[in-house]
Amino acid sequence: MKCPFCKSEINDNSRFCPNCGKNLPHNRQNTDNNQQDSGFSGTAENSGNQSVTAENPQINQEPVYSDRFSQGDAQFSQNSYQFSQNNTNPQLNEALNGINTMNVMQIICLISMFLPFVNVLSQILLLVIIIMSFGLTSKVSNAFRKFNYEQYARISDGIKTKCAVILVSSVLSIVAVFVASAGIGAESTAVTVSGILIAVVAALTSAMLQIYCFCRLYTVKNALESIALNQELPQKPSSGTVIWVCVIAVIFFLMIVIGGILAAIALPAYASYMKRARFTEVTTIVDAVKRQAELCAFEFDYTNLEGNCDNTRQAAEGSGWALYSPHDYATKYVESVEVVSLNAERARSGKPEIHITATTTRSGFGGRKSGISVVGKVVNKDIDWSVDYSNSPCKTDKLC
């Protein structure tokens, strides 16, 4: 005979089709006909048969092993072949397709997170994943509840909650980065450190939850695939995923600690480097003023410098040179530049001297002023310049 479902050849007495796994309606017509053909013919024979039957009622009954075989046949069909049929529930298939897409996107997001210049795009992709997850997890939860798997539905609901935490942590880390940048610009150590700490904690929380959700999505994916194949699921999911999450979280924690140690070493060095870089603007202006002071000294024959080659009272100008007022030299990092000249009788060295003192602003130098003082001594119609470290705060600030 042929299977009415898949049209394949099967045994006449089969209770199920071994190809498609579906149960078959048991037709006993052929069996009854065979029994009638093999019986006694004629009325007498039939009456004789009835008498024999009355004496031994088991003659025309099916053997006991036949029913047992049929029951075992049906039980074997239900236990072994019912799982070969795929579940075509549209809600289940939609949830499974969404999970597959989500897993691919999350793998790309996790990989790009550690690539330079690409990790910015990973944040955009993460935002897309989180937005998609809210609707997808609801579909997955409904699919699990439809098949009476409440434990897996709760896992899906937990993923949705953690995605909301990831979204908040990501936004908080971005805001903290801007706060830390503003603190660096304002040279506020408290604001900078606070912003960095908040950004690190938020980023660490987001990364750990991403990995957790990634592992749980695979648990959900495998469960949905089992349901699609009509396979039974364990009521309690395996805890191996949680163990892996803990291991990965410890690795991330160690990475953050090592990064924090390196940052603690690098940040002070970077701040000192930036101060020295800003102080070069001060020394550049001082060098320009020194050239003007030399021209002034040349015009006054290197002798009558006092009152002529200084700008403390007012600006001084001459033939091809000019000494502006102290605050006329002000820039972002320079507050003032003073020029004071002394004749030989008032100078400690007994020679005409020119003193140039530059003072920095508070901004860019840790909230306090610094400065440098240089002294030019007239020697043989020339000026010998040197730094007066005793009157130069840049020495103690390690800027010069």
Can you describe this structure?
It comes from Ruminobacter amylophilus. This is Tfp pilus assembly protein, major pilin PilA. Residues 27-54 are annotated as: Disordered. By secondary structure, this protein is α+β, with helices and mostly antiparallel strands. The chain folds into three domains: 1-85, no CATH class; 88-238; 280-396, Glycoprotein, Type 4 Pilin (2-Layer Sandwich). Helices cover 58% and strands 9% of the residues. The protein has nine helices and six strands; from the N terminus they run ααααααααββββββα. It has helices at residues 29-37, 43-55, 64-81, 90-112, 119-146, 150-185, 189-228, 240-299, 393-396; strands at 316-318, 321-323, 334-342, 353-360, 371-378, 383-387. The strands form two sheets. Strands 3-4-5-6 form a four-stranded antiparallel beta sheet. Strands 1-2 form a two-stranded antiparallel sheet. A hairpin with a 2-residue loop joins strand 1 (316-318) and strand 2. Helix 4 (90-112) runs antiparallel to helix 5, helix 4 (90-112) runs antiparallel to helix 7 and helix 6 runs antiparallel to helix 7. The chain is rod-shaped and about 135 Å long. 23% of the residues are buried. Mean pLDDT is 76; it is low at 27-85.
